[in-house]
Amino acid sequence: xxxxxxxxxxxxxxxxxxxxxxxxxxxxxxxxxxxxxxxxxxxxxxxxxxxxxxxxxxxxxxxxxxxxxxxxxxxxxxxxxxxxxxxxxxxxxxxxxxxxxxxxxxxxxxxxxxxxxxxxxxxxxxxxxxxxxxxxxxxxxxxxxxxxxxxxxx
Length: 154
Fold this sequence. Notes:
Blueprint: H1 2-15, E1 20-23, E2 29-31, E3 39-43, H2 46-65, E4 69-73, H3 86-103, H4 132-135
Parallel strand pairs: 1-3
Antiparallel strand pairs: 1-2, 3-4
Helix pairs in contact: 1-2
């Protein structure tokens, strides 16, 4: 399993322009470039290596949240500053924090909500408040459209 993880880290390292390092549980270290790494993935246990290899980024997050994997250095700055500005990094960091909280959920489930913002051109009648329209019969040539299902009064 360790060889698979090392091969995966090496493939990522070959594509990355940013120098980084991976320190494995047995103390060995991989560096993709010469010089000081922007960040170090420090696997504290073989279990963290196994999780990352078996489950990819999900396993890596679980190991990080479990304290079996450390990210040393500035991981956010590892994003190429020529392609990503500070606003993108703030949005990305917020997304990652949201993902982290989802995985920490003690209830074992997550509630997902969608908030729609409009410029006043969407009304209660023009925007469907449920998915019942998906199941309504579609009109064919020469037939009247199916009536819209009524919503229960609040």
